[in-house]
Known about the structure:
By secondary structure, the protein is of the alpha+beta class. It is built from three helices and ten strands, in the order E-E-E-E-E-E-E-E-E-E-H-H-H. A seven-stranded mixed barrel has the order 1-2-3-6-7-8-9. It comes from Microbacterium oleivorans.
Amino acid sequence: xxxxPAPGTPVTFRWRKWDGGTHWVHSCxxxxxxxxxxxxxxxxxxxxxxxxxRFVATHPCVMLLPPTGEWVLTMNAPPHPTRVYIxxxxxxxxxxxxxxxxxxxxxxxxxxxxxxxxxxxxxxWDEHRVAYGYPAAVVDRLDGLASELEAAVTAxxxxxxxxxxxxxxxVLAALPA
Length: 177
């Protein structure tokens, strides 16, 4: 098992695509762990980038890496309109260098104040599962998981609830700048 950094330690979360290509890279801070998994945070000013796109956070957010390695949750602080953003994934884990990494699998579950809860990027999922040759077992698992997560987010089940988000946003806010 990889040793975890101390809470407050900066880490880089690296996403890749199924073919190994670079995807999002997030500068974030390790916050700690609870019964749901390991938590990270981004403060306003923290950056994320991928080929062709850069993003600087304007609101704090917390991210959860659950032990299953099949998804990563991002919960944004108000007044950000997107409350929940779940990246369905494969092989999300700590790498040998002690930083989180995973394969982005296109499908996302989103809870947005303007639109509600839905599964996003089905078109990209359909395109990439053919282009990258996703194994049938992976496709079946993640299709079902997307629906399960959509239902859990709609029901505000932990860790998709306000109390869990508030707790970890408070941990992030309490860390020294």
